[in-house]
Amino acid sequence: MSKRDYYEVLGVNKNASEAEIKKAYRRLAMKYHPDRNTGDKATDAEQKFKEAKVAYEILSDAQKRAAYDQFGHAGVDPSMGGGPGFGGGSANFSDIFGDVFGDIFGGARGGAGGGPRVQRGADLRYNLKLTLEEAVAGTTVKIRVPTFVQCDSCGGSGAKKGSSPKTCDTCGGHGQVRMQQGFFSVQQTCPRCHGKGSIISDPCGSCHGQGRVQQHKTLSVKVPAGVDTGDRIRLSGEGEAGENGGPSGDLYVQVTVKPHNIFSREDNTLFCEVPISFVTAALGGELEVPTLDGKVLLKIPAGTQTGKMFRMRGKGVKPVRGGPVGDLLCRVLVETPVHLTDEQKELLRKLETSMKKGGSRHSPQSSSWLDGVKKFFEGMKF
To answer: In the CATH hierarchy, which top-level class contains the domain 6-75?
Structure first.
């Protein structure tokens, strides 16, 4: 059976550039790779994948391509008297196989010329506890964070001053090695450099070859007004230093607002409970209540019942992301007198007797409730 023209297999012209040949092969390799074709299509896809592989192997090698252009298949096929080396995996094919399928096998590649693999530092988290006043008004706090920073002695390389890391000769600086298992190529971490891509023969005495040292650093954190529990403040580049001179991670300051003795908070609204005397609830009056801006007068109308809610507009929290200031809701609690003297008890009894003469006029809620209870019992059958 005659072989197809290699240019036809890849779908390129005979004057195609190396980049065009590589691009065409990548497209076919992705389309016909066995992992992407199963069932009835598997056999045909595998054959086309192998055919594309052979075509690329020949046309990506300048010497083999020249022989093929001059003599056709006879110039490159050993069985037909062609040049040596046909059928063996070339370095170029290995490279493109890694380019196309590196993500499938989970490998990360080093730089084009080898060398140590650069890795971004880890992100850090710091739990910051604030008072309600600090969270509402905003503040600036100093925090001390344990972290890894770049070693000054070696500049982050991990090698002793005057020396430098050497490219790992096992993986060529990629940090991973590829093992051929039949038709498939499996990629795994390099056993010699453990994925770093380089070997440090003369490590730095300060960081012991790590390129980083652990320190505590003090940072100034500007907390915007209106933050609440669960909010995060991101400090770019203040996390751990990267490996082999890589960029630092970020520091995330996690905000927690401590409980307050007077106020509770829900989003941008503040709540507080205000106890008032029996007399103030009955006769009305004024009393001072606290806000985060200072004291204000709250007017209590006569006949106020316990649980009544009063709204003080604009005395809440200004949203951290903008918008109108919230309100303060004051819930009054009528306090029952305790530790009464005999005289006070007698006065209350006289008051109760006087109020009963007015019937339901002085206590409409109680009267209404008693009427409902009476109807309830009348409708029940015991």
So the answer is: mainly alpha
- Structure tokens, 365: 């809620």
More confident residue, 334 or 71: 334
| Fold category of 124-151+214-257 in CATH | HSP40/DNAj peptide-binding domain (2.60.260)
Report the distance separating Cα 306 and Cα 286, nearest Å.
16
Task: Give the CA-trace dihedral at 222, 225, 230, 232, to 10 degrees.
Answer: -30
Is 265 in a helix, a strand, or coil? strand
Annotated binding site for Zn(2+): 151, 154, 168, 171, 190, 193, 204, 207
Instruction: Mark the binding-site residues, compressed into ranges.
Output: 151, 154, 168, 171, 190, 193, 204, 207
| Bridge partners, residue 189, by sequence | 176
> What residues does CATH 2.60.260.20 cover in the chain?
124-151+214-257, 263-335
Phi, then psi, of 185 in degrees rounded to 5: -115, 125
**pLDDT tens string 256-269:** 999 999 999 999 99
- What is the pTM (predicted TM-score) of this model? 0.53
